[in-house]
């Protein structure tokens, strides 16, 4: 079963890369580009920056203290993509492993002297995830032996005591290694790492222990906090431990933390993180569009967590957030050519970024960069796209559920299905039965789809005799004896819609935006196009659709502001809009912004008075 996450119990079981085949389409194209371009791009930069050379002992060590983890993430991507370069790169890595299983190019000689910032266990976590991917796709080899020897070393060194790592990820990696090998000490080690956290297990740091979720035991926490990627990787591991040990209380704790975080600490795009200083969540409702951080890795971590919660509970809201995050964050994080990446993903950019094609030393999100000093995001995108088919559909006692729509084929038991769709541009999703069998087929109706319909078309019957019914958000089920040629046709309403923020989000008060299907839209200004600093819209105004190739763009009537420059931006009475001339405002899908060169951009638009 070729899955990054394969729980031994839960409401739903994932269908893996062996059961879901993706074909050309929104995601199929990106998965192919990832395999053909992005993986080689990452390899090239890791060589250029000397991070792979560190494993060959070439010259003084280069890169940050956690750069080994980037090679491991790339190895994981290669494992899912069945990439021919994997054995040779794994061989390079293996040479550094010491006799007792320890492996790290930075800390050898001063092992575990800085658990807060050293990232040694974090690096193992990614190595183990690469090993698990290889075991599931290929079987045992050099890479999987390196990974299990490292895991055994961790169990020997850390099973007793109170220590843990400043950056979680080893927790979920160890549980997955337990799932694939059946060796119980890996699960027990992960459980102890989870239970130690917050006692506390780490030294205090200037950001405070909340930064690495060591401020409160995980069972007592109310919300995700601190560094976003750390928080969501930890929560993913906690769900894994809870599921494998049958710990309902622990699972419920994470569900409650997720619920509050989604309700109060999540941007419209599904992005999480409002503070640049420590890459952390802000407080509740602290969601500024221009200072949104929304690291690409944080969105990947959010998808990993939501997927685990979906499998454990079957609750549709986890699949809904995954959809939002896939289309508006993961698709945004990588350029259309697969060779440059966003680290931060703000919802407003006031000043066009300066183009460059080298290493970006900052993480600000003005223009995608080919590489970063801290290049977690490109490798994370690569491994996620390489395993993406495993996130689309599940099986359960009740049959097959399809959570995300993109062209491809899904097999489960006797059933073989083909999904045909132009989603997310088009709202028609046809699920055609290629090989029949008995069972239920469930299709997710997204939370935004308030007037969806589902039709059943019997193979032999004419289309006029279709049974069509309205279906509410959630899962729409059809159970029957399926025959080849039968089809389900889901129609999702794709009219663009105005979206308003909660009034407690101070930074967005007085603004609106537009969504269409699962996509968030934005205004972008490139070159001599009208600037966006003073553009306002009238919510409820018509939104017209314009096809540009397959992409659906929107237009609406806008007002250009005409505020005179003043010496002081405050006064004793409200500022009117001083509306200037009317103009047509073009809106593009947020994930496509920044592909035409340096630009200003905004998702949230002021309401004209
Ligand atoms: Zn990152």
From TrEMBL:
Residue ranges of every copy of the Non-reducing end beta-L-arabinofuranosidase-like GH127 middle domain listed in the record: 400-494
Short name of one Pfam family: Beta-AFase-like_GH127_cat
Membrane spanning stretches: none
Positions of the Non-reducing end beta-L-arabinofuranosidase-like GH127 C-terminal domain: 497-606
Record has Hydrolase as a keyword: yes
Alphabetized InterPro entries for the sequence: Beta-AFase-like (IPR049174), Beta-AFase-like_GH127_C (IPR049049), Beta-AFase-like_GH127_cat (IPR012878), Beta-AFase-like_GH127_middle (IPR049046)
Lineage: Bacteria, Bacillati, Actinomycetota, Actinomycetes, Streptosporangiales
Record keywords, A-Z: Hydrolase
Name the UniProt record assigns to this protein: Glycoside hydrolase family 127 protein
Gene Ontology molecular function terms on file: hydrolase activity
Sequence ranges assigned to domain Non-reducing end beta-L-arabinofuranosidase-like GH127 catalytic in this UniProt record: 19-389
Source superkingdom: Bacteria
Keyword field contains Manganese: no
């Amino acid at each position: 079963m070729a899955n990054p996450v394969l729980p031994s119990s839960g409401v739903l079981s994932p269908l893996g890369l062996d059961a879901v085949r993706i074909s050309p389409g929104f995601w199929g194209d990106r998965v192919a580009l990832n395999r053909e371009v992005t993986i080689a791009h990452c390899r090239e930069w890791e060589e250029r920056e000397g991070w792979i050379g560190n494993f060959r002992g070439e010259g003084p060590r280069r890169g940050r203290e956690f750069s080994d983890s980037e090679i491991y993430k790339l190895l994981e991507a290669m494992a899912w993509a069945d990439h021919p370069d994997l054995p040779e790169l794994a061989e390079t890595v293996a040479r550094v492993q010491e006799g007792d299983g320890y492996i790290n190019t930075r800390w050898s000689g001063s092992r575990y002297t800085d658990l807060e910032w050293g990232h040694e266990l974090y690096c193992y976590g990614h190595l183990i995830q690469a090993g698990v991917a290889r075991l599931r796709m290929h079987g045992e080899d050099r890479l999987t032996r390196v990974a299990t020897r490292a895991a055994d070393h961790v169990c020997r060194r850390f099973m007793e005591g109170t220590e843990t790592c400043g950056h979680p990820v080893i927790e979920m990696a160890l549980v997955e290694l337990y799932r694939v090998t059946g060796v119980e000490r890996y699960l027990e080690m992960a459980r102890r790492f989870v239970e130690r956290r917050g006692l506390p297990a780490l030294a205090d740091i200037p950001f405070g222990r909340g930064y690495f979720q060591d401020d409160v035991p995980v069972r007592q926490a109310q919300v995700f906090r601190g560094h976003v990627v750390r928080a969501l990787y930890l929560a993913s591991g906690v769900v894994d431990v809870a599921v494998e040990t049958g710990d309902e209380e622990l699972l419920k704790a994470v569900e409650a933390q997720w619920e509050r975080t989604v309700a109060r600490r999540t941007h419209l795009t599904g992005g999480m993180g409002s503070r640049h200083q420590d890459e952390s969540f802000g407080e509740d409702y602290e969601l500024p569009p221009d200072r949104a951080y929304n690291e690409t890795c944080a969105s990947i971590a959010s998808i990993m967590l939501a997927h685990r919660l979906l499998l454990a509970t079957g609750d549709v809201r986890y699949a809904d957030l995954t959809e939002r995050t896939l289309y508006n964050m993961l698709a945004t994080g990588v350029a259309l050519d697969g060779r440059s990446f966003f680290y931060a993903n703000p919802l407003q950019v006031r000043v066009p970024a300066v183009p460059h094609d080298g290493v970006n030393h900052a993480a600000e999100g003005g223009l995608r960069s080919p590489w970063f000093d801290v290049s977690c995001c490109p490798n994370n995108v690569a491994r996620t796209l390489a395993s993406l088919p495993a996130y689309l559909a599940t099986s359960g006692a009740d049959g097959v559920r399809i959570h995300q729509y993109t062209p491809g084929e899904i097999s489960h038991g006797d059933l073989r299905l083909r999904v045909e769709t132009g989603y997310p541009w088009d709202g028609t999703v046809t699920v055609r039965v290629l090989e029949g069998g008995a069972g239920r087929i469930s299709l997710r109706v997204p939370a935004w789809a308030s007037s969806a319909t589902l039709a059943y078309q019997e193979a032999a019957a004419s289309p006029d005799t279709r049974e069509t019914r309205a279906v509410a958000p959630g899962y729409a089920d059809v159970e029957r004896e399926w025959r080849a040629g039968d089809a389900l046709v889901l129609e999702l309403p794709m009219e663009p819609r105005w979206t308003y923020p909660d009034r407690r989000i101070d930074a967005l008060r007085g603004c609106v935006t537009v969504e269409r299907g699962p996509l968030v839209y934005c205004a972008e200004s490139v070159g001599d196009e009208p600037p966006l600093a003073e553009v306002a819209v009238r919510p409820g105004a018509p939104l017209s659709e314009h096809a540009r190739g397959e992409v659906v763009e929107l237009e609406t009537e806008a007002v250009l502001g005409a505020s005179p420059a003043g010496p002081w931006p405050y006064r004793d009475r409200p500022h009117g809009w001083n509306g200037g001339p009317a103009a047509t405002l073009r809106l593009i899908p947020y994930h496509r912004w920044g592909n035409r060169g340096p630009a200003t951009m905004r998702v949230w638009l002021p309401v004209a008075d």
